[in-house]
Amino acid sequence: MKITWRFKDLIDLEYFLHADELDGDESTRKTAALRDREIHTRHILPRIAPGEPLPRRRLILEWLEQRRDALKSDTPEAFLPGEAFTEIFRLTVLATIVFAIMSGGGLAFSLLRYAGTRPVNVSVYLSLLVGTQTLLILLLAAGTVIRRLRRRPPFPFLYTAFSAILVVLMRRFGRLAMRHVSGRHRSSLEAIFGLIRGKRRIYGTLFYWPLFTLAQMFGVSFNIGVLGATLLRVLGTDIAFGWQSSILFSANIVYKTTKVIAMPWSWFIPPGTAHPTLTQIEGSHMVLKDGIYHLATQDLVSWWPFLCLSVVFYGLIPRLLFLVAGMVFKSRALAKLEFSHSRVDQLLQRMETPFVGTEGESGPEPPPPSLEEKTLPARTHDMPAEGRLLAIIPDDIFDNCPRDALNSLTFKVFGFGIGDIFRLKGEVPADQNLLARLSESAQKNGSADFFILKEAWQPPIREDLAFIQNLRQAVSERARIQVGLIGKPAPDTIFTRVMEKDWKIWHQKITSLGDPYLRLERLVNHEA
Fold first, then answer.
1. For residue 363, what pLDDT is reported?
2. Is residue 305 within 8 Å of 241, Cβ to Cβ?
3. What are phi and psi of 338, to 5 degrees?
4. Which pLDDT score is estimated for 425?
């Protein structure tokens, strides 16, 4: 089964994940866990054939569709951010096409102005409408090669500037299109712009491709406007073309230059149409003191097919090719998304972990499972469950941390078991040595993730956050870093529950780091 993600799906996914972020009270967390577990067991797994693999990208897309359907069922007038992005982008494309056609046509009309006394200078037309575009296309081609080699947008300053312009344009068209949308729905559209600006570490340069294709649509429309204006002037008026220069170029040099320019189409279009002949070039040479009355009409009108073909082959066709290439690269980039950031890990954990209630607590009760559900496997996506966490334990609780208990808790909360364990002493030289060892171990193990145990009752200090940031710099930017919180130690165990006020302080500090692959969890859940 082919799994197709779209930009609107990514935006809606981030919207729902943000809404479900687990920083609320206990009833909110239980409701989210129950809902996602029910989606998984009642709506996703029954549609999977026995033995059929269920990649995480398909599992997440199925969950997203269920969330959309549920929202539309409860609130039919709801307007999701993905829908808004699609509508606003369509308006932006339409406005771009109209503006580009008008710009190209207006520029061509101004260059083709002819009063009957002075022919249109083909040198100016070629320089502005062909030469400039050719230079831009060469820069774009070079930038594309650079991007493929460096795996990042070429010309980062221009990419950032144009991204900002795209966001501004979408905001403006969004205000025009959404004037009649309620304030609640209108405020939810901010998820679009937050995703484009703030999710680059997750999605890389994926949102470069809408900008790229929009630029190519402008180029295609601009050239259509130029061609349309040129043909209208040629067919509707008596217009003459000529060439002149203060530098004493011979007609033979101009003829050879036009032959080189016409090489892409001269092999299937006969001379005289593909480009002016030497005689026609000599007959259209303008000398200011001589005027134009001695020049032959057939020589003065011989240039327009060459000019139109130059625009087609050096402007329109390259832009069309870049447009197609942009769509292909966009599809490939969407197909390569891994969905491995922390919010998705939390979602999968909620879907695959059976709901366990606690006596004496009020809350929604899970429906009894059917016979089919009882036989369904708990883990279905392509996320390994073997022990692979490199655990980092503070020095003051290291000796009181039994490995078996810690391994059981991390497997339950994060879905991973403990691999190697390292002692964190909290001293700068020791920390630097530990970071080097962790980096070496991660390289040796290939795709190891990290687990940091912290006592939540001790507020995070600057050194705690600095260590996490240094660890991120020492390892892959997409390696998972899991922070597990425990409460105040009890006489018989250090694995105690976290107070809500302590959780909120840690959650705020960890969130402020802006690391999408950094995950914070209570190591001992309240349901335990």
1. 43
2. no
3. -100, -25
4. 83
d(CA 498, CA 387): 25
Backbone angles phi, psi at 396, to 5 degrees: -75, -20
Question: Hey, is 253 helix, strand or coil?
Answer: helix
- Model pLDDT, residue 121: 87
Cα(466)–Cα(472) distance, integer angstroms: 10
Do 23 and 342 contact (CB within 8 A), yes or no?
no
* Distance in angstroms (rounded) separating the CA atoms of residues 444 and 448: 9
d(CA 3, CA 59): 10
Q: For the whole model, what pTM was predicted?
A: 0.76
Residue 116, pLDDT above cutoff 80: no
Q: In 376-499, where does DSSP find H-type helix?
A: 395-398, 403-414, 428-445, 462-474
- Residue 215 backbone phi and psi in degrees, to 5: -65, -40
Q: How far apart (Å, rounded) are the C-alpha atoms in residues 39 and 42?
A: 5
DSSP 477: T
Coil/strand/helix, residue 370: coil
Closest CA to 104 of 132, 140, 129: 129
3-class secondary-structure state, position 154:
coil
Q: How many CB atoms lie within 10 A of CB 196?
A: 22
Q: Containing H/E element for 305?
A: helix 304-311
Q: By 3-state DSSP, what share of the chain in percent is helix, strand and coil, each rounded to 5? A: 60, 10, 30
pLDDT digits (tens, 9 = 90+) for 424-482: 887 767 778 888 888 887 777 666 689 999 999 999 888 888 899 999 888 888 888 99
Classify burial at 208, counting beta carbons within 10 Å of its beta carbon; exposed 0-12, middle 13-18, buried 19 or more: buried
Q: What is the pLDDT of residues 350-393, one digit of tens each?
A: 888 775 554 444 444 444 444 344 334 444 444 444 457 889 99
